[in-house]
Specification:
The chain is of the alpha/beta class and about 450 residues long. The protein folds into three domains: about 90 residues, 3-Layer(aba) Sandwich (Rossmann fold), CATH 3.40.50.720; about 200 residues, 3-Layer(aba) Sandwich (UDP-N-acetylmuramoyl-L-alanine:D-glutamate ligase); about 130 residues, Alpha-Beta Complex (Protein-Tyrosine Phosphatase, Chain A), CATH 3.90.190.20. About 35% of the residues lie in helices and about 25% in strands. A seven-stranded mixed sheet has the order 8-7-9-6-12-13-14, with helices on both faces. A six-stranded mixed sheet has the order 18-19-23-20-21-22, sandwiched between helices. A hairpin with a 2-residue loop joins strand 10 and strand 11. Helix 1 runs parallel beside helix 2, helix 5 packs across helix 8 and helix 10 runs parallel beside helix 12. The model has no long low-confidence stretch (mean pLDDT about 90).
Length: about 450
């Protein structure tokens, strides 16, 4: 079968492409934008990628068009699909019908930590010999690709609450029908489609409704929003983490002691920095245990986890200055990422932020942003031309020096002028940020 994917360079749709190719389908795709790691993953798989959304890309007609949620009415390729009467489907629906049906799906949902937790869960199941399939919104370094079909019955999926497609406004995760569902945390996000936190809580409850009675919900025991979700109705076993009566971690040096239902299971050596990653690890452990992975196997495997690209990823060093890349794009994620880097030995932290997500650009988190940067020593913010708020005014309350720059070249110059040997530059954005990592390394070296 020939699938043509519209919006193929999104992390989710690129994963669909990889799985479809592995399943033996012919896969082509088109997108307006393409940047690593997804563009390079597609190229490595030999998937034909076309730029833009031209109707000619759909001639001759594929057997089915898989539509990403970046595609809207008015898109030339989509208008051609509709006019020509070509069969089309959303990515989540195609995955549910062609890959997930009949398998034990482990879905990882939450505002933060989905990619790390789902990547870790897939790695742990692999270590336990379960040979899982997976689709995550990043590239787990242990696997080198964002998705695979897998040989075993288990399938791990990063379960996003964003809407499915222009013709299906339900959250993506309602398609997945998990038997194990991780609810990592829940905060307000996606201001472009959700009016308030209560609306997102309702979508999370739609996910809860799809978990069978024999299934398991792995829930953050410290999250009030998730407790409200469960109060709407719950029909499955609930296992809590970060909870005295459930799965919890007591820090011990660079690792932690694992307790399950009050009983110590041993000291865990972890390669992941930060309290948020201890929570992610507990969630992954509790989910893996639901499919029979022994706890001692999980503990033994954890030190070999290599994390995910764009999660505190060291991109290079020049003149003694290290440049890190991270996907953080929400005030909470920014704060915990800075805290995690601070836990590691090193010099000053220079935070560099691009407020790029729809929620950030709309200004929904503008009031929280200033103090999310307090973990840095100095901060630089790119005041994109499409911001709907005044970055300089919003950041005036920060407790650390913050400079805002509307000009990209001036931003690079200011960071380069400030940085000195021993510093760590932490770049945070959910996009490619104009290739700023390479620009900074080149400017520092020069």
């Amino acid at each position: 079968m020939h699938l043509h994917i519209l919006g193929i360079c999104g992390t989710f749709m690129a994963g669909i492409a990889a799985i479809a190719r592995e399943a033996g389908h012919r896969v082509t795709g088109s997108d307006a934008n393409a940047w690593p790691p997804m563009s390079t993953q597609l190229e490595a798989l030999g998937i034909e990628l076309q730029r833009g959304y031209s109707p000619e890309h759909l001639q001759p007609a594929p057997d089915i068009v898989v539509v990403g949620n970046v595609v809207t009415r008015g898109n030339p390729a989509m208008e051609y699909v509709l006019d020509a009467g070509l069969p089309y489907v959303s990515g989540p629906q195609w995955l549910a019908e062609n890959v997930l049906a009949g398998r034990h799906v482990l879905a990882v949902a939450g505002t933060h930590g989905k990619t790390t937790t789902s990547s870790l869960l897939a790695y742990l199941l692999e270590a336990a010999g379960l040979k899982p399939g997976f689709l995550v919104g990043g590239v787990p370094l242990n696997f080198g690709l964002s998705a695979r079909l897998g040989e075993g019955n288990c399938f791990v999926i990063e379960a996003d609450e964003y809407d499915t497609a222009f013709f299906d406004k339900r959250s993506k995760f309602v398609h997945y029908r998990p038997r194990t569902a991780v609810l990592n945390n829940l905060e307000y996000d996606h201001a472009d489609i959700f009016p308030d936190l209560a609306a997102i809580e309702r979508q999370f409850h739609h996910l809860v409704r799809t978990v069978p009675g024999s299934g398991r919900l792995v829930v953050n025991g410290r999250d009030a929003a998730l407790e409200r979700v469960l109060a709407m109705g719950c029909w499955s076993e609930v296992v809590r983490f970060d909870d005295e009566a459930g799965w919890r971690a007591e820090p011990r040096g660079q690792g932690f002691e694992l307790f399950v239902n009050g009983e110590s299971k041993g000291i865990v050596d972890t390669p992941l920095a930060g309290a948020h990653n201890r929570s992610n690890t507990l969630a992954a452990f509790a989910a893996a245990a639901h499919v029979g992975a022994p706890i001692d196997t999980l503990i033994a495997a954890l030190p070999g986890f290599q994390s995910v690209r764009r999660r505190l990823e060291l991109r290079g060093e020049a003149r003694g200055v290290q440049v890190y890349d991270d996907f953080a794009h929400h005030p909470t994620a920014i704060a915990v990422t800075l805290a995690a880097l601070r836990e590691q030995p090193g010099g000053r932290i220079l935070a560099v932020l691009e407020p790029r997500s729809n929620t950030m650009r709309l200004g929904s988190h503008a009031d929280e942003l200033a103090h999310s940067l307090d973990g840095a020593d100095v901060a630089f913010v790119y005041a994109r031309p499409d911001l709907k708020w005044d970055a300089q005014s919003a950041l005036a309350a920060a407790r650390v020096p913050v400079s805002t720059h509307a000009d990209f070249d001036a931003l690079v110059a200011a960071i380069t002028a400030e940085a000195r040997a021993g510093d760590r530059v932490l770049v945070m954005s959910n996009g490619d940020f104009g290739g700023i990592h390479g620009r900074l390394l080149a400017a520092l070296a020069a």
